[in-house]
Design brief:
Blueprint lengths: L4 E3 L5 E3 L7 E3 L4 E5 L4 E3 L4 E3 L2 E5 L8 E4 L4 E5 L2 E5 L2 E4 L7 E5 L2 E5 L2 E4 L2 E5 L4 E5 L2 E4 L2 E5 L2 E5 L2 E4 L2 E5 L6 E3 L2 E4 L2 E5 L6
Parallel strand pairs: 3-6, 4-7, 5-8, 6-9, 7-10, 8-11, 9-12, 10-13, 11-14, 12-15, 13-16, 14-17, 15-18, 16-19, 17-20, 18-21, 19-22, 20-23, 21-24
Antiparallel strand pairs: 1-2
Amino acid sequence: DGNELTYNQRGELIVSGPIYYNVTIPSSKIINLDMKGFVLTTTKSIINNGTLNITDSSSDKNSKIYSSFGIELIKNNGTLNMSDFELSISSTGNNTCGIVNSGTATLNNGTITSGYYGIKNSTTGILNLNGTNVTAANTAVYDEGELHVDGGTINGTSYGIYNYSSVDSDVSDATLSSNSNALYKYSRSSV
């Protein structure tokens, strides 16, 4: 389709247009993606097996990663660090998810909006939400791993946080809301 996806010598991801195929970051790579106020539209997942740092150095902080397809927008199996970001996925299919985390994800001062799941944190996942707002049509944060929330707003129509983990989680200075259950605790760990 003529679009190119390349890495430069400084480990920066260079994207020249919309993404129509899965982007996989190898485990040996450290990638820095500065959105610089741009909107990245994709129909496929960004799969991180290495280290992926996503920032927005623009003064307006109005960049976005967007999809209208029923995909898992970012699949993190490595280390994911995001600051001053927006993820938006408008599909309402039950496989739709902003971030699926099986590694370590630290999300600072961001916004995630999803037509179904905002974030799924697997049993191997460590998820740190710092001042990040998550809104989803079903469940904002589905947690089976280790969860740390400091600030932000978490709102899911069915569940704000659905905690199914055997690991203790902590939530402080955050606003949780839902039409059904703002915080649902299923297992024996504590929140």
